[in-house]
Specification:
The protein is an alpha/beta fold. The chain contains nine helices and nine strands. Strand 2 and strand 3 form a beta hairpin. The longest helix has 24 residues. The chain is globular, with a radius of gyration of 18 Å. It has an eight-stranded mixed barrel with strand order 1-2-4-5-6-7-8-9, surrounded by four helices. The protein starts with 7 loop residues before the first strand and ends with a helix. Helix 1 crosses helix 2 and helix 2 runs parallel beside helix 3.
Length: 244
């Protein structure tokens, strides 16, 4: 019923290129507005994952984002790269990527403008053939990110064999980093990513000191409140046109 009543709203958190400090894209996030109140994602996402409603919600979000991208393409001629979370519940149904591809075709979306974020925990789930899933996604022309990297204990050998484009370094690593030291886990993750020719995004960057630290590390992209909180579609349009 919440889907029918359009209670789920998409917000966009901008992503900023480290070398130019220009906005290059955003992550699409969902908010649930129910009875005049906002239900925190931490409350409803785990529930939806357990009851499999997350599959319907993911598809709804994906289609809404494709509509927005098509609108931006029509209005501005160029579009940002938008990342969208894909829950691992999809991966037991191998036709899920066909549905995603059909939606992009419906709206005339260049799939290289869509970054599908896979949580690291999905890469170590025994029920999922993650290499097969990732290959299917790549064959359709989507960008692939591993989200929350460093929290799911994926093996380094598996990381080497996964066809991914981006590693998103979890907020916990920048929060715990000693900004006066080069001896932090985040340094080694960035080093590893460079050796694998994989781009890095650091999320949860909230202060100038953290941003400067990330710039010195030569990461590729920063996401976090230091540049912008998640904002509405209209606010993001304004932000992107001013900062890209």
């Amino acid at each position: 019923q919440a889907l029918k009543d359009k209670e789920f709203v998409i917000v966009y958190q901008p992503k900023t290129a480290v070398n130019t400090e220009k906005a290059i894209g955003a992550e699409a996030l969902v908010r649930w507005h129910k009875d005049g109140k906002e239900v925190p994602p931490g409350k409803f996402i785990p529930l939806f994952e357990r009851n499999k409603f997350i599959i319907k919600l993911d598809l709804y979000i994906f289609e809404q984002v494709c509509k927005d991208i098509a609108f931006w393409k029509e209005k501005y001629g160029t579009v940002p790269i938008v990342s969208i979370n894909v829950s691992k519940e999809h991966f037991v149904h191998e036709n899920f990527i066909e549905e995603y591809a059909q939606i992009t075709d419906k709206y005339g979306i260049d799939r290289s403008k869509i970054d599908l974020e896979i949580t690291e925990s999905a890469t170590i789930d025994d029920k999922i053939d993650i290499i097969k899933v990732l290959n299917s996604i790549k064959e359709k022309g989507f960008v692939v990110s591993i989200d929350d990297f460093g929290t799911g204990y994926s093996s380094l050998s598996m990381l080497q064999s996964m066809p991914i484009d981006i590693i998103k370094i979890d907020k916990v690593f920048i929060d715990k980093a000693n900004l006066q030291s080069d001896n932090n886990i985040i340094n080694y993750i960035v080093y590893l990513a460079k050796r694998l020719s994989v781009k890095t995004i650091v999320e949860g960057v909230e202060t100038k000191e953290q941003a400067n630290y990330i710039k010195n590390l030569k990461c590729d992209v920063i996401q976090g409140y230091y540049y912008s909180k998640p904002i509405s579609k209209e606010e993001f349009e304004d932000y992107f046109t001013k900062n890209s």
